Amino acid sequence: MPEPLVDQLAGFATAADTAALPAAVVSESKRILLDSLGCAVASHGERGADIAVRYAQVLGGHADEASIIGTDLRTTQLGAAFANAELINALDQDAVLPPGHVTPYVLPGALAAAEAGGVPGARLLAAIAVSHEISYRIGKATDYLRDMKDGVVTIPPVIGYSSTIFGAAAAIGVTRGYERETVADALGIAGSTVPVNAQRAWMMHAPATTIKYQLAGGMAWTALTAASLAEFGHRGDRRILDDAEYGFPRFIGTKRWVPEPITDGLGSDWRFTAEQAFKPYPHCRVMHGIFDALTEIVDTHDLKPDEIESITAYGESFVQQPTWVNTDVTEARDAEFSMTHGLAVAAHRVPPGKDWLAPELVRSESVLALMNRSRFEPHPDFTDALSGHVSARPSRVEVTAHGETHVGERNFPKGVSSPDPSTYMTDDELAAKFRHNVAGVLSDADAEAVVAAVTDLENVDDVRVIMERLRPA
After folding, report:
1. Do residues 298 and 349 touch, judged by C-beta distance below 8 A?
2. How many of the other CB atoms lie within 10 Å of CB of 264?
3. For residue 458, is it left (φ>0), alpha (ψ between -120 and 50) or beta?
4. What is the DSSP string of 52-99?
5. Which of 96, 211, 233, 370 has the fewest CB atoms within 10 Å of its CB?
6. Burial of 133 by CB count in 10 Å (0-12 exposed, 13-18 middle, 19+ buried)?
7. How far apart are alpha carbons 394 and 255 in whole angstroms?
């Protein structure tokens, strides 16, 4: 009988050696961490983020194990992981990777465990790399939001990010230094206790639930629980990934289960870096290429919002779903996904970042009026472009002002690796995003110390030196 997939993944996780990781994997893992820390700090004040911090204190009280990023609060690992997962994802400007959002589910548990254990940065770096690689590979084995059927992008009836639970649990095991057998049990328990894939319901029911497509805190909490139960002696289901009829593929609702990519070249061929992407805007990724083109037009022609007669955008064909076409925007989490509201905000030339979701802007008369003069249509070349490159998002925007129509187009949004080198978000650009996100919360000295420490993460003796710098000035 072949070795169970869970055992193979556990072997991969426990064998990961930071010193032997490819340079691209090391770099991308650091970039993910820095971006995530900034996203978390920026989220404070958003209603859902504040709820998460409040609930984290219910979960963990005033224990002194781990920090809630961007605050002076400390609590249990469970409490901190729950809050930090929600904070990273709250403004929807966190890094993205197939099957979609990965980082807010897989990083917070490992980060809390690393801080609680005074773990060196090299071990956290390995955990980040392992968790994203495992999540990417399992994501490629299951249904995906941009899957094609008969030449048309067709959203599966059940979709979500539950598959990232294995990467999340593995990351905690790496951080805590578990043996292979314990990590395997943790993965088996995680797969048996994972939250359901409810993203399609979120898409279809507008105004959508404000816990969004997957409760990030719930995923982090589940992963930490699974890891701890394995550490304390529980046995996990080692064949949870091998049984397509009764195991994980069945009960998360995926119609496609192609497990070969999960272990093909595992340990020697790192694949997640090719599709790892970063988000300049705190808005659903489907609109970013359009925003890039739109902001260039309004900047070039110095257009004021009240001068714009209409905006017509063309983009991803599958997003004509209630949550994306919603115009009943009452709070930030509605604004993160409404396509026409996003067009209106982008046209106001507010620098990308947390300011996009400021309540006074989200509900301003100017934004709401321009939203009603904007519309979104499927791009006729979307399917063909996607067939040619996995990161393709053909985008076109037409802005009419003073009786003249200005047109902008993009094939790839900023933040992805593509044939166009300008779309790659450089280290300097990610550091600038971090600084913008933490401005007004961290001191300049602390912000620069975090950038320097994450850049040199493999040589940081104790992760706590980074976490201590993420408290308000």
Report:
1. yes
2. 11
3. alpha
4. HHHHHHHHHTT-SSEE-TTSS-EE-HHHHHHHHHHHHHTTS-S-EETT
5. 233
6. buried
7. 28
Kindly state the helix (H) or strand (E) to which residue 100 belongs, with its residue range: strand 100-101
Q: What angle do CA 467, 469, 473 make, to 5 degrees?
A: 135
Crossing angle of helices 165-176 and 180-193, in 10° steps, is: 150
Among 216, 172, 212, CA closest to 195: 216
For 319, the token pair is 């997003």
Helix pair 103-117, 77-89: axis angle to 10 deg: 140
Task: Note the maximum CA span of the chain.
Answer: 71
* Contact between 451 and 462 (Cβ < 8 Å): no
Q: Tens of pLDDT along 445-464?
A: 999 999 999 999 999 999 99
Q: Do residues 335 and 341 make contact, with C-beta atoms less than 8 angstroms apart? A: yes
The whole-angstrom separation of Cα 324 and Cα 337 is: 5
d(C-alpha 401, C-alpha 156), whole Å: 39
- Token pair listed for 232: 């304390």
Q: How many CA atoms lie within 13 A of 386 on its CB side?
A: 21
**How far apart, in whole angstroms, are the C-alpha atoms of residue 367 and residue 390?**
33
**CA–CA gap between residue 342 and residue 279 (Å, rounded):** 14
**Prediction pTM value:** 0.97
| Other CB atoms within 10 Å distance of the CB of residue 151 | 9
Distances (CA, A) of 58 to 43, 78, 79, 82, 229: 20, 10, 8, 11, 21
Going from the C-alpha of 69 to that of each of 53, 74, 273, 302, the distances in angstroms are: 10, 9, 26, 38
Cβ neighbourhood burial of 176 (10 Å; 0-12, 13-18, 19+): buried
Residue appearing with tokens 């930030």: 332
Identity at 290, one-letter amino acid code: I
What's the pLDDT tens digit per position in 157-216? 999 999 999 999 999 999 999 999 999 999 999 999 999 999 999 999 999 999 999 999
